Automatic annotation (TrEMBL):
Domain of life: Bacteria
UniProt xrefs under Gene3D superfamilies: glutathione-dependent formaldehyde- activating enzyme (gfa) (3.90.1590.10)
Organism name: Pseudoalteromonas spongiae
Alphabetic keyword roster: Lyase, Metal-binding, Zinc
Alphabetical list of Pfam families matching this protein: GFA
Sequence similarity: Belongs to the Gfa family.
Protein name as catalogued: GFA family protein
InterPro entries: CENP-V/GFA (IPR006913), Mss4-like_sf (IPR011057)
Amino acid sequence: MYSASCLCGEVHMTINGPISDIIHCHCSLCRKSSGTAFATNGFIDSQSLTIEKGQEFINSFEVKPGRKRHFCKQCASPLYSSNADDPTRLRLRLGVLDCDIAERPMSHNFVDSKANWDSLNMDLPHYSEFEPSRSK
């Protein structure tokens, strides 16, 4: 079982099942909805998702007919996406997970539309906290 929550903590969810087909999506829709270079998504069985707290805080935006992105209306955290053509699966935004997972991403998708400042495997320094030059 996996636990997940939004940024403000109003929405708490559990996923009682595996997460499959995890990808880093670089399409413009995922970039805009996440506000980052890409979104990491994985599929879950819709029956495995339980909203433990905060159902009233979940809102949705229909990106295309039948395709909705569900988010916390308090803090705007993206939670999952649904597709009316396949109601048995949801696409979970892995950034909302509060625990480690066993599964791993399998690919970077839509790389031809990636942000021009993202070079995928750029060799950059790694820090365990803020970069040393940053004022806190």
